[in-house]
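Recall the central idea of this unit: under ordinary conditions, the amino acid sequence of a chain determines the structure it adopts. In this exercise we apply that idea directly, starting from the sequence alone.
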Amino acid sequence: MPAIVLVGAQWGDEGKGKATDLLGDRVDYVVKFNGGNNAGHTVVVGGERYALHLLPSGILTPGCIPVIANGVVVDLSVLFSEIEALQGRGVDCSRLLVSANAHVIPSYNRTFDKVVERFLGSRRLGTTGRGIGPTYADKMNRVGVRIQDLFDEHILEQKVASALDQKNHLLVKVYNRRAIGAAEVVEDLLSYVDRLRPMVRDTGLELNRALDDDRVVLFEAGQATMLDVDHGTYPFVTSSNATSGGACTGSGIPPNRIDRVIAVVKAYTTRVGEGPFPTELHDADGERLRDVGGEYGVTTGRPRRCGWYDAVIARYAARVNGVTDFVLTKLDVLSGMERIPVCVGYDVDGVRHDEMPLTQTDFHHARPVYTYLDGWAEDISSARRFSDLPPNARAYVTALEQLSGARISVVGVGAERDASVVRHDLLG
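Accordingly, the structure predicted from this sequence is:
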């Protein structure tokens, strides 16, 4: 049975939670392998809307084991708040496993993130201010706090004190803020130990054994390809690897265990935060996409920047991730449009680019080259077979498939969990 990696093909918010849910009870494990609570999934089950930020979306599937793996940075206050909220709605969270090697977001990193972002002013990166970047920086600087450290109070005190030795100098002398006491941070982290202990495992061992036993394991990326710290629009990116390769380093499974890579892509494009966005719209069409598509951040509530479908980015995502299948979401949002532009290339200072430009400077100056496809007026939310879609909607999907570098196996036509047209089995 397969190990499947599920990634976002654009700048996030493509609907990865829906794609995960679509696989349903055929998946035994759902693994979050990167990021933290700086992004979210919205999943609609039986008319109930669930917004997940840190928990894997498999938490909503009975019998599925959700895993927070080693590549994730964990805000414990958010983790337990989210668990309590779901339990209050009758969701069983007792199956959740958390890697002993995952890093913790201490309170001082949330403070540091917000202070630095304000200090940057017009040069800000557009972070969520949740301490994600500073925690990954601590990880690379070898002063991070891991889940396992909470079970050794002496080690925890040493690590927190070591991290604050440097951070307090910056907070006080550069940012004119008060120093943070190590004791209060340690006390806060230790308050979670009793609740956390039953969840903690060697999740890499657990997942490899599951694959040995022919269980289906889904590795669910946070954020998306164009926000990957190595392969995205740097520096306007997240602090982790949100591409398929990150599933290996972020979970402890080797590359030869991966069978399929599913990339979720919207029928148009959105982005939250700063950074270049070639097909961005600043007109009534952009407002329409935002309003009809409900394009506001699950985690932050920020309005998303909206634009037309960008096939150059889709091809790039297909190449970087080794995409075997695309899931195209929110096709229904385009219903009622007479003509729909699709970006097929870029013009950079008079030079045509059919692939991603070499430099960030060129990408910043890229202007979309559009082809125009006929729209459709019909409501497509009840379609369940490809033949149920209007001819122009089918033509739109076929054109995107030809432009994007991999087959489109599923088409989303609404928010409900069953509002999908399945063209190819994602596990087949």
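The chain has a mean pLDDT of 92.
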